[in-house]
Design a protein that fits this description.
The chain is an alpha/beta fold. Helices cover 60% and strands 7% of the residues. Strands 1, 2, 3, 4, 5 and 6 form a six-stranded mixed beta sheet that branches.
Length: 500
């Protein structure tokens, strides 16, 4: 197996991501419980220049995907698998650009696949997940552009400017990757770069990519207001708690690869093994910048109070962690145990699948609300109920992530709105004809017996205020089939509105 993957590492990535996709489909019959994926779909309905929270590169990718792919759970998780494959191939390319040995790169790739950001967290396709794929390729382009021996530095400089711009259009947090790379060019042995044309090409392309969005931000205050909310204004004790969690993030997001590297790739006492893996790699300062720069800069921003730390921000920062650790591995142990780590995936892949079956079974027999939530069934029930009684098609559903979920699974096209159509935010296209259209105002889907009277009352009052007819319907829905052995009813109240 090692010989096969050593000559065809892309095959390893494809097989791993396919197994990973099947694992996720077995374990998760729904989209993520936080609504991030539904939100990405909602943003993908138009070519939005921005939103009230994030830049829009991922929604653009989702829009392209759903032009050809069906709107199903399997399809959107397949997009997550493609994103994961791009991330792993980026790490492979980055390791080679850094001139690490082929065995070093393959072992780093295999160990990195066992880190939680790539194993259990990449399924939630949100703005952290898109950074998993674009950051390694941005770093790769930078390495190639700043290599004195590269014959195509200008091309790679343009690629770096493009990818750095797309990183910023993926998540503003990507600044913690770009600033350390910028600072690296001012080291004494790197200043030669500024005497060449490459940095100016990169800057020109970067500005060409990001300037339209910057101008959009200046004209739309929604996103700026959201960014200001991320500033650190918590009490000192709470800030220190979040900082401590972020300091420890590499340990609880990457424990499996760190433990395996410590056991099989270095020797000595526990402390000496840790010190060996953590030391700055010799003759590869750039690898140290890539591995530690985003993490340390994030901590600096938190310490000086510029941001209020969120632990999930640590998900993309470790793309170079395993390359960093492998660069410090004992060469003899790497030659001895490295192929064994790669070959172990013939056992790891079945374990992933068996583990997903166990996880799904535990959820199925524990009345897990998120596992049993009838996301597709609620959309079908709401739309079919209307279509069976009215000739006028439903045009929109509001509001927020619940509306996005209904629109995603709807059997007929319907647009998810972030708010009722009379109060759409400035970043969203105006819906001028909404008074002559039929729509749905969706209320939260909860377990049977929940009280949604406030939501229903507000929706009917809104319809009356705008001279629309309204009808309140509450559906009781429960998932069934071999994957859902228990009966866990949910109630979904909706208010249909349409012109008089």
């Amino acid at each position: 197996m090692f010989k096969t993957f050593s000559s065809r590492p892309a095959l390893f990535v494809v097989i791993h991501c396919f197994v990973w996709w099947i694992m996720i489909l077995i374990a998760k019959p729904n989209l993520d419980r936080y609504g991030d994926m539904a939100e990405v779909y909602a943003w993908s309905q138009h070519w939005l220049a921005g939103s009230s929270k994030h830049p829009q590169f991922l929604p653009w990718m989702a829009k392209i995907w759903f032009l050809v792919a069906p709107k199903t759970v399997a399809s959107i998780y397949l997009l997550s698998a493609v994103n994961l494959a791009v991330a792993m191939l980026g790490i492979l390319a980055l390791g080679r650009a850094l001139r690490l040995g082929e065995l070093q790169v393959l072992v780093a790739l295999a160990l990195g696949a066992l880190a939680f950001p790539y194993l259990t967290l990449a399924d939630k396709l949100n703005m952290n997940a898109i950074c998993l794929s674009i950051w390694p390729w941005t770093a790769w382009a930078f390495v190639k552009a700043t290599s004195e021996r590269s014959e195509r530095r200008m091309l790679h400089a343009a690629l770096f400017g493009l990818l750095a711009g797309l990183s910023m259009l993926s998540k503003y947090y990507s600044i913690v990757l770009i600033l350390p790379l910028f600072a690296f060019t001012f080291l004494s042995n790197q200043r030669w770069i500024w005497r060449a044309a490459t940095p100016w090409v990169a800057i020109a392309v970067y500005l060409a990519v990001t300037t339209p969005h910057i101008l959009w931000l200046m004209a739309h205050q929604d996103a700026i207001a959201y960014a200001r909310e991320q500033a650190g204004d918590d009490p000192t004790g709470k800030r220190l708690y979040y900082i401590a969690k972020f300091i420890a993030a590499p340990l609880f997001y990457w424990p499996i690869p760190f433990i395996l590297a410590g056991l099989f790739l270095v020797k000595g006492s526990f402390l000496s093994r840790c010190a060996r893996l953590a030391r700055l790699p010799r003759d590869n300062a750039l690898l140290g910048v890539l591995a530690l720069g985003p993490w340390l800069l994030t901590l600096f921003f938190a310490v000086v109070g510029l941001v209020e730390l969120s632990t999930p921000w640590a998900i993309p920062i470790g793309f170079a962690f395993m390359l960093y650790g492998i660069a410090n591995a004992d060469p003899r142990l790497l030659q001895k145990n490295g192929p064994k780590i790669i070959a172990a995936f013939r056992f790891i892949w079945p374990i992933m699948l068996v583990g997903s079956v166990i996880a799904a079974t535990m959820d199925a027999y524990s009345d897990n609300v998120n596992y049993y939530r009838p996301e597709q069934e609620q959309a079908v029930a709401a739309v079919d109920h209307w279509n069976a009684r009215h000739d006028m098609p439903l045009s929109w559903v509001s509001s927020g992530n619940l509306a996005a979920m209904i629109a995603f699974f709807s059997p007929t096209p319907i647009e998810a709105l972030p708010t009722p159509p009379d109060a759409l935010p400035s970043y969203y296209p105006e819906r001028a004809n909404w008074r002559n259209e039929a729509g749905i105002i969706a209320c939260p889907v909860e377990v049977e017996g929940s009280d949604a009277s406030d939501c229903i009352g507000e929706a009917k009052a809104w319809a009356s205020l705008h001279g629309l007819q309204s009808e309140e319907v509450t559906f009781t829905i429960a998932r069934s089939g071999i994957r859902f052995p228990r009966t866990l009813p949910f109630q979904m109240p909706v208010v249909y509105v349409w012109p008089r």
